[in-house]
Structure formats: structure tokens, C-alpha cells
Design a protein that fits this description.
mainly alpha; 71 residues
Length: 71
């Protein structure tokens, strides 16, 4: 059950989220709204990185151990 949840929710959920982001951006650009497509990319990336940084900070504040994801 845990492996199935990981695969269905984690992996497939990530693919569908990324696909939606890509399709939205592509559709905006294809229909001539290039400025909105660029805005979409910028906002999505800033919000995504901000959410990761916020989650990391919250984890540290709750007593989590500092881990560096890069070797």
C-alpha cells in the first residue's frame, strides 16, 4: 500500500502537475500570449522555490536536522 501510494500520488501526481504547467505555458505562447507565458513561468518558479525554502525553514524550526541535498 505505501509503495502504491508513492507511485500513484507522488510520481504520477508530479508528472500531471508538471504536464499541466507545461501545457498552460505552451498554450499561452502558441496563442500569441508570449508575455503571459513568460510571466507564468516566472511566477510558478518563484512560488515553487519559495515554498521549498519555507518548508525547509519550517522543518528546521520544528527541530529537523540540517541536511545538505548536494554532496
Amino acid at each position: 500500500p505505501v509503495t502504491r501510494s508513492f507511485l500513484v500520488v507522488g510520481i504520477l501526481g508530479g508528472f500531471t502537475t508538471f504536464s499541466s504547467f507545461g501545457l498552460d505555458t505552451f498554450t499561452l505562447a502558441r496563442t500569441g500570449r508570449v508575455g503571459l507565458a513568460c510571466w507564468n513561468v516566472a511566477v510558478q518558479v518563484v512560488i515553487g522555490v519559495g515554498a521549498v525554502a519555507g518548508g525547509y525553514a519550517l522543518g528546521l524550526a520544528l527541530g529537523g536536522a540540517h541536511t545538505d541535498p548536494l554532496p
